[in-house]
Amino acid sequence: MHGKKADESNAGADGPLPGGEKADPATVFAALAEIIYQGSKANEMYSAICIAATLIVRGCDHASLLVLDNDRYVAVGASDRLAQRIDELERRSGDGPCIDAIEEETPQIDTDLTTPTHWPKLASVLLSETPVRGAMGFRLLVDKRKGAALNLFSDTPNLFDAESAGRAAVLASFASVAINAVAKGEDAASLRRGLLSNREIGKAVGVLMLLHDMTEEQAFDLLRRHSQGLNIKLADVAREVIEKRGQLPSNGKNLLPPNT
Fold it and tell me: Up-side HSE of residue 31: CA atoms within 13 Å toward CB?
């Protein structure tokens, strides 16, 4: 991870915060699902995802989606004109969280661009020409290849934290499903099903983490192993975990780690 890790920031003070926390995440995701269900155009869908980032991700004031198309970075969605401007500056400078997120596997996060950063060219121009002081980038896989990223920006340094990164990662997974569906020409109903299953997997991971004192990685691995062991879809395993309040489908083996 470039820059400062999100959980090392000093964000976390009580009181009203700019960016994010303006709407209930469940309400926002339901609205996104409705937009998709109605068969909205791709650019409307991408813009809605970016606006959603500003509503549910702590500290996020601007967001955009950048796609790598034939070795060119193309902005396909943005929450506002400033987000579009930031994408242009990032492409011009040749460095930044979105570009690095596309090229690398890990989320790219710098909570304070006013301090030394891995993106000195971009940081310099952002500090001089925009109010942006923090940035995050999350890679999206397009047809199983790196090809897009969700960009989030904060006007206040050190507001992005671990919770911000977690919510952004969930939103990025939604965006990945949407972009892949559009690329494959899937209809709105298929896309909605994909988004629903993706969200259910996230819920199941959270249930297992809470009930069995697991890390996110351990919980997801447990779902995956049950899916493979029972030869059923991961989304179906997740759905049963949610419905049965943490109880996993049985295959005659206890796949839970010791002491859970």
Answer: 17
- Say what the pLDDT of residue 170 is: 82
Over residues 12-17, the mean pLDDT reads: 35
Contact call for residues 139 and 149 (beta carbons, < 8 A): yes
> Rounded to two decimals, what is the model's pTM?
0.66
Structure tokens at 12: 């976390």
Long-range contacts, 39-42 (Cβ 8 Å, 24+)? 39/187, 39/188, 40/188, 42/76, 42/182
Pairwise CA distance, residues 205 & 196, whole Å: 14
Contact 228, 239 (CB under 8 A): no
Tell me the per-residue pLDDT of 132-161, one tens digit each, with 9 for 90 and over: 999 999 988 776 666 788 999 999 999 998
